[in-house]
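Q: Protein A?
A:
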Amino acid sequence: MNSTEWVTTSVPYLAPREPGQRDAWSAETAAKGRRGSQRIVQAGEVAAPGEIAELLGVGEGSPVVARRRIMYLDGRPCELTDTYYPPAIARGTRLAGTAKIAGGAVTLLAELGHVGVRAREDVTARLPSEEEAAALESELSQPVLQLLRLTLDAQDLPVQADRMVMPARLQRLRYDLRIG
């Protein structure tokens, strides 16, 4: 693995953190001797884009709460992460604001009584939009990976949907699954 490549697994990002623990991104990067940070670009109610509306089981254009972030690895943009929540869960909470959330959003969701017990991820490769390429400091001709994740609670109701876009040349997604 070269020093610009990042290998990640989804599991740490799905479970609430213990009190006083850092968010999963900061903890994972620090454990690997790297520096991870993020900038919240936008937060609040938005119209649900088509693929997110489908994941959350709402009509396209329905109101949802979104947090849009740019993730940085060692000071360079490495991922665009947009997280969407049903308004009944997130409206009027810190999820709708631009302040960093101690322990991360999944920890706050658990505090609000919404614990994910199952997640489904779909990964595709495509070329970036102009906006994505600019935010990632990449070329329009450089493919990106798009990961769509839906997190469901014990009643199989959606609590969170994520769309992550990352330069394909810098990422390796790892799925380590226990069978049986």
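Q: Protein B?
A:
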Amino acid sequence: MNDDEAETPYAARERFWRGEHLAFTPMEPDDAELIQHWRADPVAAQEIGVWPGPLHELHERLVSYVEDRDRDDFLLLLPDDTPIGHIALHSQDFADGTAEAYLLLAAEHRSKGYGADALAALTDLAFGELPLHRVEAVTHTDNAASLATLKKAGFTQEGVRRSSCLHRGRRHDNALLALLRTEWEAQTRPRAWDHV
């Protein structure tokens, strides 16, 4: 590894997909330490409803994600190659045309519009490239920032899963949101392929 690669380790990573202000690169098992750091943030731990376990377990999980054909995981990169988050489509069921969206942003990159940009690009992938009909998302009902980001990306809250998450010894309700292909088609925003 030369000095340039050491200074910008993500510069050489393939850009698989683009949002308006960010790009997707396939997640690698070696990204475990970075994702562990993001997940250790107390706000993120509260939002995902779990505390991070040992790093080796996360590394093993990322290895399994790479091999899992029912999910697609990506790091989010800014134009200057700074990694800012992890986004995924998981539990993909092509027979039913469904999947679930997952998004985790680094603390210093929240509340800047990157979440809605990333979700817009993810739904462009789901409906523009994959044969999906419905993308779901789940978050705590008291997570106002996540709910606002999902709604900005076009998701509609469909219901509440009462007392469905245990975190820090307390039960939490989870909101279920979804975006349907027909709703995505009706959006008038630029698409991911317009940013290439």
